[in-house]
């Protein structure tokens, strides 16, 4: 961003909105492609249509200079009417609001240039007052949470804005009584042709990086300057004292301020845990430790039986809510009566359901009796089947008896056969004895004959 440029007045007769030439320059190439300057264009660089910055080429969009953001009447833009009274009425309306539009234009460009951890909102009913909130994470003002106000005059941008610290701060350039910031010699001599609101925010950002020397003409707090130069430890103690006091008042309500905060009870525990983990020298993985505590301990402690987390807002009921008026009590009484009528209706419906259940019960009993009759008939049939089975068993027993008689007869026949076999065995044994005797006699006779023959031969 270049600030050594002039504001260009738009076309006369349409609006007097001032637009800086800087806002009309755009990069020649998109997304950083071909950022290097070509040799053929070096001759034409730094002309009215081309400028260089950080080795990048920017071109001037002439249409951007003549563009207005004020919603003008279409007839006026098309020049379809030449009635001077109508034209004067349109132009008067434009001139009446052009100052507000110029401030909004300044604010819209500021959003792209505001430093990190800086937040700014114009007040709803007054565009000339901008509320600012700052959170600091470094320098000796670390952990400070500051509220500021930037006040514009009706002649802006021809006059310099004023900056006030709503939150007290111990700094050489901030008045300890009024909170007004001294903007230095450069910004105090405000020049609308080269000074913008973004410069104010850059100045505030650099304010917290303390300098070794300050111009005595712009010093607002002589005590702070003396301690800074002679007793830095005491200076830091005073800085911390003001930071602690300011942080305790961060939840104090301010009328018309755009940054009013509410302190909720359930957030205090989380804040304290964050601070404890942050200062814990033993804990090496602080982020994981906090997430583990938040999920496994804090969530479980703040969850009721139904799994719904209790809200601190419900516990912190204000006195106004406890002081219920008589009208609200009457309304509650009417609601209770309505609920009673609904309960009676529900009771009647329950009685009807009970009668229907009784009818269903009687029908079930009838069905049960029919089932019992069918069961008795089945039992009779079963008894008849049993009788038939018994008859069959008797017949079977008779057959078994007959079979047993037959078996007895067969056994007697077998016994007779066994006796006959025994007699045959005896006969065989007798015959065998006879045969053996005959064989012995034959052998004896043969032996005698042999002996006789031998004797004869001798």
From TrEMBL:
Gene3D superfamilies: Serralysin-like metalloprotease, C-terminal, Ubiquitin Conjugating Enzyme
Acidic residues composition-biased segments: 407-418
Comp. bias intervals (Basic and acidic residues): 419-429
Domain spans labelled UBC core: 98-248
Any coiled-coil regions, as ranges: none
InterPro entries referenced in this protein's UniProt entry, alphabetically: Serralysin-like_metalloprot_C, Ub_conjugating_enzyme, UBC, UBQ-conjugating_enzyme/RWD
Compositionally biased spans, kind Low complexity: 302-316, 326-366, 375-406
SUPFAM superfamilies, per the entry: UBC-like
UniProt region (Disordered), positions on chain: 302-438
PANTHER family: UBIQUITIN-CONJUGATING ENZYME E2
Protein name listed in UniProt: Ubiquitin conjugating enzyme E2, putative
Provenance organism: Plasmodium reichenowi
């Amino acid at each position: 961003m270049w600030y050594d440029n002039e504001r260009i007045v738009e076309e006369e007769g349409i609006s007097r909105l001032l637009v800086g030439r800087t806002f009309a320059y755009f990069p020649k190439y998109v997304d950083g492609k071909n950022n290097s300057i070509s040799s053929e264009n070096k001759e034409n660089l730094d002309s009215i249509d081309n400028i260089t910055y950080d080795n990048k080429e920017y071109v001037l969009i002439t249409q951007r200079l003549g563009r207005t953001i004020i919603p003008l009447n279409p007839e006026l833009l098309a020049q379809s009417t030449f009635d001077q009274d109508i034209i004067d009425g349109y132009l008067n309306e434009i001139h009446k609001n052009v100052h507000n539009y110029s401030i909004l234009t300044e604010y819209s460009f500021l959003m792209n240039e505001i430093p990190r951890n800086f937040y700014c909102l114009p007040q709803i009913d007054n565009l000339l007052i901008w509320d600012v909130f700052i959170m600091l994470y470094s320098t000796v003002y670390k952990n400070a949470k500051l509220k500021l106000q930037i006040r514009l005059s009706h002649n802006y941008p021809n006059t310099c804005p004023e900056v006030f610290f709503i939150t007290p701060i111990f700094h050489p350039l901030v008045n300890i009584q009024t909170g007004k910031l001294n903007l230095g010699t450069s910004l105090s001599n405000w020049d609308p042709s080269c000074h913008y609101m973004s410069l104010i925010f850059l100045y505030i950002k650099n304010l917290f990086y303390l300098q070794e020397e300050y111009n005595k003409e712009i010093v607002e707090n002589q005590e702070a300057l003396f301690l800074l130069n002679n007793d830095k430890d005491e200076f830091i103690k005073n800085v911390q004292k003001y930071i602690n006091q300011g942080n305790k008042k961060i939840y104090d309500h301010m009328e018309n301020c755009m940054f009013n905060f509410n302190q909720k009870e359930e957030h205090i525990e989380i804040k304290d845990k964050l601070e404890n983990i942050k200062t814990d020298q033993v804990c090496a993985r602080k982020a994981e430790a906090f997430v583990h505590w938040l999920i496994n301990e804090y969530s479980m402690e703040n969850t009721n039986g139904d799994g719904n987390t209790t809200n601190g807002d419900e516990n912190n009921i204000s006195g106004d809510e406890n002081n219920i008026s008589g009208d609200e009590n009457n309304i509650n009484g009417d609601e209770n009566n309505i609920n009673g009528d609904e309960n009676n209706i529900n009771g009647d419906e329950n009685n009807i359901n009970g009668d229907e259940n009784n009818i269903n019960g009687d029908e079930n009993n009838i069905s049960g009796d029919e089932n019992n009759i069918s069961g008795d008939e089945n039992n009779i049939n079963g008894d008849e089947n049993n009788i038939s089975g018994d008859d069959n068993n008797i017949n079977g027993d008779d057959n078994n008896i007959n079979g047993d008689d037959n078996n007895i007869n067969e056994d007697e026949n077998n016994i007779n056969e066994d006796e006959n076999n025994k007699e045959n065995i005896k006969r065989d044994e007798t015959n065998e004895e006879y045969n053996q005797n005959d064989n012995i006699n034959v052998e004896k006779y043969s032996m005698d004959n042999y002996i006789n023959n031998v004797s004869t031969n001798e």
